[in-house]
Write a structure and sequence with these properties.
The structure is a homodimer.
Chain A lengths: L12 H8 L3 H8 L7 H14 L5 H8 L4 E6 L4 H5 L1 H15 L4 E6 L3 H12 L5 E5 L7 H7 L4 E4 L9 E5 L1 H14 L5 E5 L5 H16 L9 E3 L4 H14 L5 E4 L2 H13 L9 E6 L2 H5 L5 E4 L2 H17 L7 E4 L2 E3 L5
Helix pairs in contact in A: 1-2, 1-3, 2-3, 6-14, 9-10, 11-12
Chain A binds a DNA duplex through helix 1, helix 2 and helix 4.
DNA sequence: CAGCCTATTGGGAGCGCTCCCAGACTGTCT
DNA sequence: AGACAGTCTGGGAGCGCTCCCAATAGGCTG
């Protein structure tokens, strides 16, 4: 009578125990794969679970374990980017793939303004996730510090500065950029301009540094009049190109820190009557779908975005399992894909 | 002594009650904005909440209310698409925007294979979400039926067939396609081919139907030799174009059911020496970033993807609030953006 | 001033689970 | 045979919250 099959409500641990003729403890042990259960008891429980179609109530479990079995992927981005950046989609795919191996769930949180930031703070403060993945952080982003303070495991995709203390995974932006510029240099280009991303982001900064390094290797002093800063948008890339063309009409190559900006640059070059690649060679960064569709198709530095997603997830799961783990920093290689703009 | 400030653990309702000198019930009422609390008590509680930095434990709440305050966005897609389709990103943005108004959270679930489907089933069976948003369903998708059986509020973005019983929101695919074809007809094109999406998806089917309807309006019998089916990928679009060109070398226009396929078609046309738009006019669908970057820039039918995301969210929240609500079906308008391929 | 109603309040019960400990039951060793 | 170590087992306690009801405090009426 006490634990009758309650109509309309899912079966509980208790019900399974009763059905299997064992105690709650035993059922719990079986369900959680804990050791110390006889084969007979295990079989009985498994049968009862199957018959009743029992699924543990996560809220009840969470209440006592204070785990949530979910992590958050936080994307702090101004409106525009998630739309255009295949990078985020790829990272999401990677995270999801890795998570599919576990029984953790993924919460997606877009933080676009002050209000959404407060919402996130509350959310994390309420311990609704076991860990946080932070994608695309800026130098002055308040989030990492906040998360550290809340002592919640956090892994970044990308880093704030070259000396990022938090665990993070990032593409070899510096090496990738340097490789692109070397490639241009090797093809005899001499006035190689660069369109950078925002310099308050490490990606922006590092890719510019790669451009510099490749020059320095050749004992050429990088000429800052060949540098224009933009914001990873197409329009920004276009404006930067216009700017560069005005300043340095003699330029014969451009390395853009993203495909989208490169696409903008391409448009501008065309309007100025410069032929690509004859007059000006162009290289982008990301090797995204955009690169394949420009005319001519864009040579681009690819980063292993999906792999970044997978890797940050793995690091985070490790840190959740053992918060005392030392922070880890991984750099993933980039690859240059030559198409027709060089 | 009984409820001392427990070091390292977040404050509980009980602690707040003690601090404010009221009972648990009162604190609960204040925190949940329930009526029937005196101004004085409310103020005392609010002060205590602020002092202790109290945040309710969602697991405990969920255990008793059996609500989770979160919804799932399920994207059943084969590997390739999430990468290339800005559509999904836009929908996600819309959902997120709408959710930001509430204190609901968004779970993102990618279902790419049988295993992930089982995982989702378990997950929904465990009542880990209050509702499900289902994007891009195929006719034979087992998910909608499953969700209906589990009696969990569900809203679809897109529909399975024109007589979809579940609540859903979709773009006016038929009207948009018909509009595109009319536009082509109006410009004097006479042999208008179409590259369709998979015909087991309503989007594929409806856009083809629009192509047919526009012909029928003009009392022209749609000629099926002008129809080629592809799979929304670039390569597929390209192959379909090749096919069409072989079958109907006289074609003078192509309506493709997605920008990505149109991009593939464009490449193929170029390789066959057809000039666009002089020899062959081309229209795509989605009006995505790809459309702006093809050469020449692609005329395309835009769908309000972000708005779709917002709308499905609103419908779902309503249905969660009142599951007895009748199912609703909304069609959102498309817009034709003319660029240089027509 | 008694009597009755309403607005507010406190706190018991219970949501479904894990944790843990005491007890039962084996088998082995002396 | 008795003691002991190990293996399994059941179930009490408690996680932090909401729900609800009985109790209290005012306020109003006659």
């Amino acid at each position: 009578m006490s634990s009758r099959n309650r109509p309309g409500r899912p079966p509980t641990l208790e019900a399974v125990a009763q059905r299997a003729g064992v105690g709650r403890g035993t059922v719990s042990r079986v369900v959680n794969g804990a050791p110390g259960v006889s084969a007979k008891a295990r079989a009985a429980v498994e049968a009862a679970v199957a018959e009743l179609n029992y699924v543990p109530n996560p809220a009840a479990r969470s209440l006592v374990t204070s785990r949530t079995d979910s992590i958050a992927l936080v994307i702090p981005e101004s409106e525009s980017r998630l739309a255009s950046e295949p990078y985020f989609s790829a990272v999401i795919r990677g995270v999801s793939t890795e998570l599919a191996e576990t029984d953790m769930q993924l919460l997606l949180i877009l933080v676009r303004d002050e209000r959404e930031l407060r919402r996130l703070t509350r959310f994390v403060g309420a311990h609704r996730v076991d860990g946080v993945l932070l994608v695309s952080v800026r130098q002055d982003d308040p989030l990492p510090a906040l998360l550290e303070e809340l002592r919640i495991p956090t892994v970044l995709a990308g880093r704030r500065t070259p000396v990022e203390p938090l665990s993070h995974v990032h593409a070899d932006n510096l090496g990738g950029a340097a490789g692109a510029v070397r490639h241009l240099l090797a093809r005899g280009r001499t006035a190689i301009a660069t369109i950078t991303g925002p310099l308050d982001m490490d990606v922006g900064h590092s890719r510019l540094q790669g451009w510099r390094d490749a020059h320095v290797e050749r004992l050429v002093r990088p000429d800052e009049s060949l540098v224009a800063t933009a914001d990873f948008t197409e329009e920004g890339g276009r404006a930067a190109m216009r700017d560069l063309l005005g300043r340095r009409p003699d330029l014969d190559a451009v390395f853009a820190a993203s495909d989208v900006m490169a696409a903008g640059a391409l448009t501008e070059l065309r309007e100025h009557g410069r032929r690509v690649p004859e007059d000006v060679a162009v290289i982008g960064f990301d090797d995204s779908i955009v690169a394949r569709h420009t005319v001519p198709p864009l040579t681009s530095v690819g980063q292993p975005s999906e792999d970044i997603g997978r890797t940050i997830t793995r690091l985070l799961l490790d840190e959740i399992k053992d918060p005392a783990l030392p922070r880890r920093h991984l750099t993933l290689p980039t690859t240059l894909t030559c198409r027709e703009t060089t």
